[in-house]
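Here is one chain, start to finish.
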Amino acid sequence: MTDLILLSIAMLASGCVAGVFAGLLGIGGGIVIVPVMEVALSLVGVDPAIRMHVAVATSLAVIIPTSISSSRAHYKRNSVDVALVRRWAVFVLIGALAGTYAAAQVHSRVLAAIFALFAFLIGLKLLVHREDKPLTGSMPPRAWVNSIPLAIGFFSSMMGIGGGTFSVMVMTIFGKPIHQAVGTAALIGLIISLPGTAGFVVAGWNNPLLPPMSLGFVSLIGFALIAPATVITAPLGAKIAHGLSRRHLNLVFGIFLLATSVRMVSRAL
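Its structure:
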């Protein structure tokens, strides 16, 4: 009983923090939820072989309502590039399904290492470069660029994040204003989280190592506690984002990613 109470408290706390970061950075909260959930699951004795799978799957499930709430808040501020989302949607979807399948085939330590590596590289990039230097003034329409949303969907579903970690960086490189990139990333998170969640439910079905009250790799307890907290707090993050400068948003994003990377690599080792 004590373990369940501690787990519930951890889920609620991570949900509140994740919601704020979802609105602030368009990240869907996954980069907060995954490491916090991994620690919480270890405290209640979930097997290390599937611990990251449960954290990633539950994170993707939570991102569904979070992305809806965050993208609506940004849409009201005219900060969502709907045309770009329509152009990328199919490729993000395919990438998300492929990433979910790949994640289900590996040990939790591999997922933790992948999570830590990408978090570190992106965080370092944001901190080292004081200003983004766009390659072009707009997103290029050429066919080869379709590999970008494919990669975003693939790695985001493997890491249990909403895509903002990658798509915000990509969109700013191609000249998209940071606030519009954040808002657009929030909607992309919904396209990643829906198929990703479904894939992890199927992949973890009837796994004997699963904790109680799980639907495949998705923890229903985690979803029930984290999702409402993120929906409530995501609009607050969006409000904060529009009160910060471009540089301040990059600094917040970079520092948080580096801190997350250090924590996750320690778990992988």
